[in-house]
Amino acid sequence: MVLDPFCGRGTTNFAARLVGLRSLGVDSSPVATAIAASKLVMASVEEILDEARRILAEREASHIPEGEFWQWAFDPTVLDALCRFREAFLEDCTSDARIALRGIVLGALHGPKQKTFPSYFSNQCPRTYAPKPAYATRYWRERGLVPEPIDVLAVIKRRAKRYYSMSSDTTGAVRLADSRKAESLQPESPDTRFNWVITSPPYYGMRTYIPDQWLRNWFVGGPDVVNYTNCNQIVHSSPEEYSADLRRVWRNAKNVSVENAIMVIRFGGITDRRANPLDLIKSSLNDSGWRITTIKKAGTATEGKRQADSFLRKRSTPMTEYDIWTVRQ
Ligand SMILES: C[S@@+](CC[C@H](N)C(=O)[O-])C[C@H]1O[C@@H](n2cnc3c(N)ncnc32)[C@H](O)[C@@H]1O
């Protein structure tokens, strides 16, 4: 049984599933948990497409956001379809097919225009973060980039085939919660305990997960404007408060793990902060119930293909990342 208290988009949970291990992922971002959940369900391509067709045929959108940004970001037919999906999922997103479909739409919501088949619903955009409205509208207007009428079902079909053609019996659970609270990490069944904790917390200073994902956050129920409040996110006001917040999470993880459980933390830094990442993580582990056994260099964020790529806008200064191996005391 594997726990990731900062599961983000569910890399740990998906990796656990691939090797047949059950897992629990917890994250306080609704976008992250929606994407992670879509990696753990069992749904066939046909079930996903049927659900998409049904929603588009049977629903009318009751609210469609207005204003310059929305006019430039999506063709009106595409925005209408997105609003139908959005409202359907907000009403009920409990079946595996819907969870899968929501993940697919979130992934395709914005990204670059493709030369061959369209892969994204939006006008030209970055894939990994949503541009702020004023900047994006200026960019599109200056270049005369108008949004195209994308065949929404065709995009969904291609993605469903790519992600859901293989099946696995192992599933897992994902929870939208603040891992600093003890109850957030409780396993689904009271007699289960975790053997592994595999995680990567927000690096010190990386506090823009929610505003950077404001468009996807809108899709899962957030407002149709950028939201800067850092709801239930780790505090970054000082290194001391940051370490104390992480320590809370490590202690909570200890309380739901078996004796000798292993926790591995992938950790690095972002370049605009002077705090030393290794000092920060070591201090967070003091008195946490976990003892460091090994620290391995995991290379820099520009070597190979890795998660941190998504968080780097300019590849100027590569940051070294570390894997901190600990054992439960
Ligand atoms: C480095 S990312 C994790 C990336 C992840 N491994 C993945 O596969 O995408 C850190 C995550 O911590 C989450 N987070 C920040 N504060 C949190 C808190 N108090 N409780 C739970 N999750 C939190 C953020 O929303 C973000 O998704």
From TrEMBL:
GO terms for molecular function: DNA binding; site-specific DNA-methyltransferase (cytosine-N4-specific) activity. It catalyses: a 2'-deoxycytidine in DNA + S-adenosyl-L-methionine = an N(4)-methyl-2'-deoxycytidine in DNA + S-adenosyl-L-homocysteine + H(+). Its EC number is 2.1.1.113. It comes from the Bacteria. SUPFAM superfamilies: S-adenosyl-L-methionine-dependent methyltransferases. GO terms for biological process: DNA restriction-modification system; methylation. It is an enzyme of class 2 (transferase). InterPro entries: MeTrfase_CN4_CS, SAM-dependent_MTases_sf. Keywords: Methyltransferase, Restriction system, S-adenosyl-L-methionine, Transferase. Belongs to the N(4)/N(6)-methyltransferase family. N(4) subfamily. This is site-specific DNA-methyltransferase (cytosine-N(4)-specific). It comes from Geothermobacter ehrlichii.
